Amino acid sequence: MGTYWFYDSLLYIYALSLLFYFSDFVDSNRRAKRMGAGLLVFVWVLITGVVLYRIWAHLDMTLFSRFEYWLGVSWLLLTASLVISRFFRIEFIVFLVNLIAFSVLALNLFSDPNAEIPLAPWKLAQELLILHISLVLCSFSLLAISAVFAGMYLFLHGRLKSRRWSRGVARLPSLEQLDRFSYRLVLFGVPLLALSLSVAVVSVVVEGRPGYLLDWKVVSSFAALGLYAYDLFQRAVKRRPALQSARWNLICFAMLVLNTLINPASNFHRWS
Question: Where are the domains of the chain?
């Protein structure tokens, strides 16, 4: 019970920072934005402390839980949003990315942070397992932000086509910017996803358990990678229009989210 007050306080402060950000881009309140940014940095410091503590507590990496995984996703999304707010004036993106990070963190903290789910130990070097997990976390975070840009592209395109203007729409980046950011994030996220799957496959084969390659988790992971690869091929070679790419991006990310939801039916990570 001793640590739950800390997690509850963390969520309240995070929610308050998002309220300030929302107030800013609804009514262009610069003071609210400064307060929201300050609270967001404070939340980042707190989550960073939790991440470092959990890493220190699991230095041997023999135990790895869903809590650590999604905590890492939340931390990466929050970090990315702070970088975006520092170098780009795109308040909508900062808010939406943090909305995803907050949702992931809130759902994660409803689980028991102290309940550790054993991950089957691989007979490879400890660094290989750490590399696989790190690549998956980075890939998911980049592709999640890319999906946010794609969703905003579809929203703005619909507004412009129907000629429905508002102050909020006027503050959005251009269609060209949204498409460029979304595409570049996919260019980084897909290779990371491919590398993480390669490390996982090599680990399973070396351990002598090729049967795990037919697990639903592995099959759906490669299906998601194939969808993203097809999208990149259509974009780079076939010159697919940006509007179609934005729609396809959301389909690909939906497949990636589905991949995380089938964990209970998978034996690959022994997560139940």
Answer: 1-119, 125-272
